[in-house]
From TrEMBL:
The keyword Transmembrane applies. The chain crosses the membrane at residues 535-555, 575-598, 610-641, 648-665, 685-706, 713-733, 811-830. This is Pentapeptide repeat-containing protein. The keyword Secreted does not apply. Keywords: Membrane, Transmembrane, Transmembrane helix.
Length: 840
């Protein structure tokens, strides 16, 4: 139910009879009687000064608060101050404009609102008024307070006030807004639950020195935002011995002629974005507690100097898209958080000297018109110059980088001076570098949202940067220090190839054979000598290889049992081969049936690739069994097409497929399955397994040695076996000296012939030669002279000991080939490592 309509009761603090006759009391009373439309009575107290001029007009509502619905007219006389108490304003938009126009006779207003409620949507929009004093005490606002083009002279105070539930449920962020206002004072604004709201100063003018302390805004707001402000002199300092500042402040598109911090500790968030600083900016880290301070899009027309009594910086500093027209100096400090200079422009020098940076520094897309001086500093994480431009010089003298600085472009091609004397980059393992790639991608993704997660490209950039620094050193004839970067460069080349292969598999493309071979060789070089950098490792590896060969030679001397074991178990290999061929045939026929009769479609390229690979396995096994030349030719053509004829790979695969199908079905490949049961094929298969077993064991041993190269104690034990083998038989370290002579290739056969029974030797020699040997000695000599005929004859079936000896000789011969190839590699790596380490 609406409150009853009321009237305005006018009271004077003096008896009317005491007033001068010149004061139109009746006119004043009549003007106020019809001033407002109110519900319930409204008391208007008029207070006169001793001079009988009007000092104050007080509008006092009742205890239930008087409602002012409308403004009827203006006042036509002058007074000094107006006070509204216990009033609810329900005014139209037009009347809201008039609320402060009531006092047009005064050039400056002193207005107070006490225990009032502004319940109109637009009552808080105040335009073009000059206030000497403005107070809001214990008031409630239905909308934000909006001051446009107003002037504040002496005091502005909002105390113990609040906002309505309607305001809380609205989308308003700002509770008080100043547009194009002029200040001779800063307002004191205390609104309940202020941590949820913002204050906005947009395009204001501050005529006096501004002193921001903990009491200026009454309590902590979500943010106080200064936008498009020119500060001639602004200071942050303490008041009444309070040394903390707890107000969040953001400066946007503002200009500072002078800014200073004195004796204050800032526990709030302060940021400077799109600002201009015309005087030297001194940053003192101990004053701040926030995690990150932003100067993004700002311009510094004077030096930016970081000063810190503790010599530590514990905040992230962001200078994205900032222009430095003078020096940026950060010297003799420990920086524990990120420095972000993304897209920054340095008209003068960027100077970070004798400092220790424990977090990343981002200089992506930065432009350096003068140069960079990082001399004497240590960077424990990434220094990212990705796509930056440098015009004059880089001073990395005595600088330490844990990771190589990242330049996307080759700065050595530019006409700039680069000083990397005594620069060091941490010697990281390949595993550390692999982890580094992922960490770098995560770091750059913070600033480049469209950054592609393609590891191979990133690894290539890392590798090219090592090459760049190596090239700088080589250009200065410093080949020894340049060699220190080669190892890291090769690590990254290995990682690059691995990532390329992974990306190929993701795109359903087979990795290149050449890349696989490069990865294999790089891995072997890394494991054996750390790319010719670790002399101890290659020496131990070489002796370990000799030790393995020595052990296998000892086993060969007592190898009768081993050969017998192979011969007894060869039947299992025959059975596996049998079922493998059947499986390939079954798979091929099944796919054809499904495709032709049930219209089930396959990716024919993939099917073709699988079938060819399975058939190649059969070709290799056919070579093992038959030692067929045609199988070798097919394998050679296939590898040639894979490596060198990339454009005609599909054509080669089709031709190869047709050849294999022809051989498979028309050239007796099926008969090989049956031939395995035949003694001749069985003997060939058995013989092949025996002669390759020693080489296979030695290759497995070499692989184990490569795998355990970092386990120094185990490698040392294997190397000690090699040393012992050299003392026992020095000839094992003389490669190619008689290793492939006639006697060496038939050592165990000659030994077996010498151990033959005399009668058996005579019988064998009689069957080889038509004439009968004259003596036992002559018979054994004939067997040795005609060893080739003996090896190819069926007589070996009657003499298993000779057959076993021939197999062992074949195995040892192939073992020697593998051993001397590995030993030659070890000797080459050893001399290259010794040369690099300046021993020879």
């Amino acid at each position: 139910m609406d409150k009853e309509k009321g009237k305005i009761i006018v009271e004077f603090n003096k008896d009317i009879s005491e007033l001068d006759n010149d004061i139109p009391i009746k006119v004043i009373k009549h003007s106020i009687d019809d001033l407002f439309e109110v519900n319930n009575d409204l008391l208007c107290k008029i207070e006169f000064e001793k001079s009988n001029s009007i000092n104050k007009i007080i509008f006092h509502g009742n205890e239930d608060k008087t409602i002012i619905n409308n403004i009827a007219k203006y006042l036509d006389f002058s007074f000094n101050e107006t006070i509204f108490e216990n009033i609810i304003f329900k005014l139209s938009e037009f009347d809201c404009e008039d609320l402060f126009k009531l006092f047009f006779k005064s050039s400056e207003f002193n207005i107070s609102f006490k225990n009032c409620v502004f319940n109109s949507n637009n009552i808080q929009r105040i335009h073009d008024i000059k206030f000497k004093k403005l107070y809001f005490s214990n008031c409630e606002f239905n909308d934000k307070l909006y001051f446009n083009n107003c002037v504040f002279d002496t005091q502005f105070l909002i105390s113990d006030s609040r906002v309505s539930d309607k305001f809380k449920n609205s989308q308003n962020k700002e509770v008080v807004v100043f547009y194009d206002c002029n200040f001779d004072c800063l307002p004191l604004i205390h609104i309940e639950e202020s941590q949820n709201y913002e204050l906005l100063f947009k395009t204001p003018s501050f005529n006096n020195k501004i002193n921001l302390n903990n009491n200026v805004f009454g309590n902590k707001y979500k943010q106080v935002k200064f936008e498009n402000v020119i500060f001639k002199d602004i200071e942050f300092d303490s008041e009444y011995d309070k040394n903390t500042f707890e107000q969040n402040i953001s400066f946007v598109r503002s200009k500072f002629e002078h800014i200073a911090f004195y004796g204050i500790e800032i526990k709030s968030n302060i940021n400077f974005e799109t600002c201009i600083f015309n005087k030297e900016f001194e940053y003192v880290d101990e004053l701040f507690h926030q995690d990150k301070i932003s100067f993004n899009n700002s311009t510094f027309n004077h030096n930016f100097v970081i000063r810190s009594n503790s010599k530590e910086i514990n905040r992230e500093l962001s200078f994205e898209n900032v222009t430095f027209n003078k020096d940026f100096k950060l010297n003799n400090k420990a920086i524990n958080k990120i420095l972000n200079f993304n897209k920054a422009k340095f008209k003068n020098t960027l100077e970070i000297k004798n400092s220790n940076l424990f977090d990343n520094i981002n200089l992506d897309n930065a432009i350096f018109y003068q140069g960079i001086d990082f001399s004497g500093s240590a960077f424990q994480k990434f220094v990212n110059f990705y796509e930056s431009q440098i015009y004059k010089y880089c001073n990395f003298n005595t600088t330490y980088f844990k990771y190589v600085p990242i330049f996307k472009t080759d700065i050595t091609k530019q006409d700039i001076k680069i000083d990397i004397k005594f620069m060091t980059i941490s010697d990281l393992s390949i595993d550390d570098l692999d982890k580094t790639i992922g960490a770098y991608i995560n770091f750059v993704s913070l600033f480049k949202k469209d950054f592609k997660n393609e590891e191979s490209k990133i690894v290539k950039i890392f590798r090219e940067n090592f090459s760049m620094f190596k090239g700088v050193l080589l250009s200065k004839y410093n080949s020894f220090e340049a060699s220190n970067y080669k190892k890291q460069e090769l690590y990254l080349k290995e990682l690059e190839l691995k990532y390329i292969n992974k990306e190929s598999l993701k795109k359903s493309k087979p990795p290149k054979i050449k890349d696989k071979l490069d990865i294999l060789m790089l891995g072997i070089n890394r494991a054996t000598s750390d790319h010719h950098d670790d002399l101890y490792q290659i020496i131990m590896f070489t002796f370990a290889i000799i030790g393995g060969y020595f052990m296998l030679n000892c086993i060969c001397a007592y190898s009768n049992e081993i050969v017998d074991i192979v011969q007894e178990n060869v039947k299992y290999g025959k059975i596996l081969f049998f079922f493998f061929v059947l499986f390939v045939n079954f798979l091929f026929v099944t796919m054809l049936i499904l495709y032709w009769f049930f219209q089930i479609y396959f990716n024919m390229i993939t099917v073709l690739r699988i079938i060819i690979q399975l058939m190649m396995c059969i070709v290799i096994l056919e070579f093992i069994i038959q030692e067929a030349i045609i199988a070798i030719l097919i394998l050679f053509v296939y590898l040639l097409a894979k490596i060198y004829f990339k454009k005609f790979q599909l054509l080669f695969k089709l031709i190869l497929f047709c050849i294999i199908v022809y051989l498979w079905y028309n050239h007796g490949y099926f008969s090989y399955i049956a031939d395995l049961a035949n003694d001749i094929q069985y003997v060939k298969f058995e013989y092949f397994l025996v002669i390759t077993s020693f080489s296979a064991v030695f290759i497995a041993y070499v692989y184990i040695c490569i795998s355990i190269c970092r386990k120094r104690l185990i490698l040392f034990f294997l190397a000690s076996l090699g040393v012992f083998g050299i003392f026992y038989s020095p000839s094992i370290i003389t490669p190619f000296l008689g290793a492939f002579s006639e006697d060496a290739r038939n050592h165990y056969l000659y030994k077996a012939i010498d151990e033959l029974d005399s009668q058996k030797a005579l019988e064998l020699s009689k069957q080889i030669l038509a004439k009968e040997p004259t003596s036992e000695l002559n018979a054994k000599k004939i067997l040795k002279d005609y060893k080739d005929e003996l090896k190819s004859s069926k007589l070996l079936e009657k003499s298993p000991e000779l057959k076993r000896a021939i197999a062992i000789d074949g195995g040892v011969l192939r073992l020697n080939i593998v051993y001397y190839l590995v030993l030659a590699f070890c000797i080459f790596a050893l001399q290259k490592t010794m040369r690099k380490n300046s021993i020879i």
